[in-house]
Amino acid sequence: MQRGSGSFLTPVYIASFLYQASQNIYGPFLPVFAATLGASYLQIGIIGLAGSLIQVPTSLVFGRYSERLPVKRLMWLACVLAASTIALLSLVQNVAEIVGLLFLVGLGSGMFWPTTDALVSEVAVSQPREKVLGRYSASWGTGLLVGPLLGGYVVTYFGYRGVFLVSAVTLSICLATVLLRITPHYSSRPIRKVDRPDPTGTTVGKRPNRFAVAALAVITSFLLGMIYLIFPRYAASLSITPIQLGYLFSTYAVTRLMLFFMSHRVAMVGIVKSLGLSLVLLAIAGAILGLASNFYVFLVAFLILGVSAGIEIPLIMNLYARTNSGKGMTRTMGIYETVTGAGIVSGSFSGGAISNYVSPAVPYLMTAVVALATFPIVVVAGRGDSSSERSVPADEQVPDPVHE
Q1: What residues contact residue 358 under an 8 Å CB cut-off, 6+ apart?
Q2: How far is it, in rounded angstroms, from Cα 312 to Cα 365?
């Protein structure tokens, strides 16, 4: 089976869904669980920082040296590490133990996501990139939908510790998918580049501005990280129940998922216009979250937030993939994961510190201001480099290095 075939991509999509679902079965409820152990807002920010802090350098290392590493083994090793570590979370007794275990979870994610990002991105070289990346984003986006709903009911009927065990079981199913459906069919043959027209107006020879795209990825992940990692504790203080919290995050996921499926059409509108709209929506959602205290108003805010994320995530990922200069797609996507991880690290810690020392509502109001101030970066990132290279026929192009 060749990597470029749909039959290869399908189990990759399934594994991405299962891995993401496992993280979101327990993720939205971990801050509330930590609060039951006496964690402050600042400590919750540190908890959010812990996993991403190790994931950032790990993603960079595995992205940088993946051509020399046994890629076939990385995904299943990541699943084994994450499943065993999350199962141990059911036994923790204090915040320090949570932080220590989350470092290991971050290590697993740092192995898993650069590998899957690169597999899908390399296949997308010979197919409409937005369509392939949109389906990939939809696969792990579905995990965002299923995970919180399932987690909310597990917490309600079995307690917070039970949610970690359910997450570990989900990762075990992901491991079986990787071992049975991906690693046996991984082809080490290079995939040839195809110089095909693109609806966004960015060609293979006209690469976007890497620094602008990286800055945009950091800022948006910073803002989303602040909301995702700090909001559960804030919501619990406003008497939002675990099931309601699950519905909020699932509403965010389902709207984001719908936009993922339409990412190819969204790209046709134009990068600058689409990303500009997503920032306006992000600002509106942040303002609502900072001013509201009612479940149904929060529901509207999370719906708007989902539309915003559904527009920006595939487009930013696509832009960064196009900055690849022939040094290997896994390396490029490893750097992308590092960049977004850096945003999440700084966002979670900043959100926790601001909530602890200023006010729990301030991070969301700050999100509205920062989102609107990001427009100039969107213009630069969407415009891309004006110096285009000669369009090279497919039979003349040199394939990227492929991971062993």
Answers
A1: none
A2: 20
Q: Which one-letter DSSP state was computed for residue 391? A: P
Interatomic CA distance for residues 164 and 33, integer angstroms:
11
Q: Is the pLDDT of residue 392 over 60?
A: no
Number of neighbours of residue 293 by Cβ within 10 angstroms: 14
Can you give the residue ranges of every domain in the chain? 6-191+199-385
Instruction: Name the CATH superfamily housing domain 6-191+199-385.
Output: MFS general substrate transporter like domains (1.20.1250.20)
Two structure tokens written together for 303: 């719906």
Q: Cα–Cα distance between 244 and 250 in angstroms, integer?
A: 10
Among 180, 222, 243, residue whose Cα is nearest residue 18: 180
* Residue for token pair 């369009």: 391
HSE at residue 2, side-chain half, CA atoms within 13 A, is 9
125: Cβ contacts below 8 Å, ≥ 6 apart = 191, 192, 193, 194, 329, 400
Among 115, 157, 127, 133, smallest CA distance to 19 is for 115
**Are 18 and 78 contacting, i.e. CB atoms less than 8 angstroms apart?**
no
DSSP state of 184: G
Q: Is the pLDDT of residue 241 over 90?
A: yes
Three-state DSSP class for 209?
coil
In which residue are the tokens 């389902």 written? 254
Residue 401's pLDDT is 30
Please give the mean pLDDT across all residues of the chain.
81
- Which is higher by pLDDT, 185 or 249? 249
Q: Which two tokens stand for residue 151?
A: 């987690």
pTM of the model: 0.79
Strands annotated E in 87-226: none
**CA 355, CA 133: separation in Å to the nearest integer?**
35
Cα–Cα distances (Å) from 32 to 189, 240, 250, 263, 348, in that order, read 47, 11, 17, 34, 15
By C-alpha distance, which of 135, 156, 165, 130 is closest to 26?
165
